[in-house]
Amino acid sequence: MNTSFTMKTIAALAIFYWAGASFAQEKVTFATNWKAQAGHGGFYQAVADGTYKKMGLDVEIQQGGPQVNNRPLLATGKIDFLMAGNLLLSFDNVKNGVPTTVVAAIFQKDPQAIFAHPGQGYDKFGDLTKAPVAFISKDGQFSFWQWMKAEHGFKDEQLKPYVFNVGPFLADKKSVQQGYSISEPISIKAQAGFDPVVHLLADNGFSTYSTTIETRADLVRTKPEMVQKFVDASLIGWYNYLYGDNKAANEMIKKANPEATDAGIQGSIDLMKKLGIVDSGEALTGGIGAMSMARVKDFYDKMVKAGLYKPGDVDLSKVVTTQFVNKKVGMNLKK
């Protein structure tokens, strides 16, 4: 037996095995709540520029859409992370015993807004209470509209259903309408040639975080290193998307969602920056993704006042964990 050859073979196999283990990528599935768009850009950026891979993660983004509800897939273990809207659904999960928790908040401000026609006397948020018609979706009527009534004096007599078509709003200059502040202003300008008056709910006390990253509570307990890697890579992705070269990410977005256009994507990025959707508030000191339990409680208290919950309905310690954020990750990439 050639002992030298055998030892060399064993050594070579050991090196091969070590190298394979070093470069092994942990498979992770991340689902969004709508079709690919600039509002998801940082996640696509982290895939496109290899940030997730550098963290040892092989991330698949599974987009949502009008006929796709990814939310139930998180609790059942079919996905690992979910991009959620705002904290209301997270409150509901905890209230109903669904073991999920928020580990980061990409948007410091919820992009939900009320739009008005310029020159109609709606320059202040309080002026909107005088509008004869407010186009609000069914979901909106049972969520933020209740807060608008309790906090600002809006009335149900104003309500008309919003069917995600700006046509009725454009036809009635005295009407106001809900919408996403980083998308609808672009379509309104394209269709009607004017910039609407935009009132962010977030700038008027609707203090929820938005575009949150949710995961299962068991992953936080059993795989905190993996959760930290996913959060860190996502935050770096968002800094690179907003302040770096985002061309490859935008190509991924357009491939996943053929309805997305270069002009629409850039318009949304510009609005995210202008309105401080991502990089404002706590993110200025703690980095993108920052959260605080004080703010979670503030929002919950407002929702109790609005009648959406009762005191003690929700254990807020289960809604959010701040262990993965507030670490200034990626802030050095800001330009």
Can you give a write-up of this model?
43% of the residues lie in helices and 16% in strands. The protein starts with a helix and ends in a 16-residue tail after the last helix. It folds into 2 domains: 28-108 and 208-333, Periplasmic binding protein-like II (D-Maltodextrin-Binding Protein, domain 2, 3-Layer(aba) Sandwich); 112-204, D-Maltodextrin-Binding Protein, domain 2 (3-Layer(aba) Sandwich), CATH 3.40.190.10. The longest helix is centred in the N-terminal third of the chain and has 20 residues, at 3-22. The protein is an alpha/beta fold and 335 residues long. Residues 14-22 have low confidence and may be disordered. Strands 2-1-3-10-4 form a 5-stranded mixed sheet, sandwiched between helices. It contains 16 helices and 10 strands.
Structural class: alpha/beta
Number of domains: 2
How much β-strand is present in the residues? 15-25%
The backbone outline, from C-alpha atoms, is globular
User: In oligomeric terms, what are we looking at?
Assistant: single chain
Tell me the CATH topology of the largest domain: D-Maltodextrin-Binding Protein, domain 2
CATH class category name of the largest domain: Alpha Beta
Supply the CATH architecture of the largest domain: 3-Layer(aba) Sandwich
Radius of gyration, CA atoms, in whole angstroms: 22 Å
Which descriptors would you attach to this protein?
335 residues; alpha/beta; D-Maltodextrin-Binding Protein, domain 2; 2 domains; 5-stranded mixed β-sheet; 16 helices; 16% strand; globular
